[in-house]
Amino acid sequence: KGLIVLNLLLLLSSCKKEETVAAAIDIEQIKAEIQAKENEFAELYNAGVMKKIGYFAEDAITFPQNSEPISGKEAIVKYLKTHMDSVAKGRKVSFTTNEVFVANDGAQVVETGYYKIEDSTNTIVNSGNYMTLFKKINGKYYSLRDMSTSDLPDN
Q1: Distance between the two ends of the chain, CA-based, in angstroms?
Q2: Which of 49-53, 112-116, 123-127, 134-138 has the lowest mean pLDDT?
Q3: What is the SS3 assignment for 90?
Q4: Counting CB atoms within 10 angstroms of each CB, which of 19, 25, 53, 121 has the fewest?
Q5: Phi and psi angles of residue 16, each rounded to the nearest 5 degrees, phi first
Q6: What's the rounded Cα separation, in Å, for the pair 9 and 12?
Q7: How many Å apart are CA 109 and CA 49, to the nearest integer?
Q8: Nearest Cα residue to 55 out of 127, 137, 130
C-alpha cells in the first residue's frame, strides 16, 4: 500500500513540474520579441544593410515565392541582396506578427504574419502572408524555416 502511495505522489509531482514549465511561458512577450525581430529585419533590409541581418539560423531554409528553396544563412542573405538590388529597389517592406504558436518548452515558435511592400509613393505593390519557424539559439530566436505567399492577383 505504501508503494502505491509513493508511486502516486511521484506521478503527481512529475505532472506538476510540466504545468510549471508551461505556465512560465509568456506568449505575449514572445510575440513582442518576434515582432521586434521582424521590425529589425525590415529596418535593415530597407536600409540595404544585408550583412548585419541576424534573423536567420545558419541552417535556415527559405521558400521564396516563384523560386526554388534557398538553404543556409549565407545563401539566403545573398539572395535577398540580389533581390533588393533588382526587384525591391526604392521599396519598403514591413511585417506584422499576427499569431505565435509556442512549443511547451519555448525552444521553437511558429509565427504567422502579414507583409506589405510599398513603393516611394506609399502605394502597396505587393502584400501577403507568411509563416516562419523560429528556433531559440543561445537565448535568441532565429528563423529556421520561412515561406510567404502574395495575396495579390497574378498579372
Answers
A1: 75
A2: 49-53
A3: coil
A4: 121
A5: -65, -40
A6: 5
A7: 26
A8: 137
State how beta strands 70-71 and 108-118 pair. Answer: unpaired
Task: Please give the C-alpha separations between residue 28 and each of 25, 52, 117, 145, in angstroms, as whole numbers.
Answer: 9, 27, 26, 22
* Order of strands, sheet of 140-150, starting from the edge strand that comes earlier in the sequence: 70-71, 56-63, 140-150, 124-137, 108-118, 92-102
pLDDT at 85 > cutoff 80:
no
Contact 92, 117 (CB under 8 A): yes
Q: What is the pLDDT of residue 16?
A: 47
- Go through the chain and tell me how many residues it has: 155
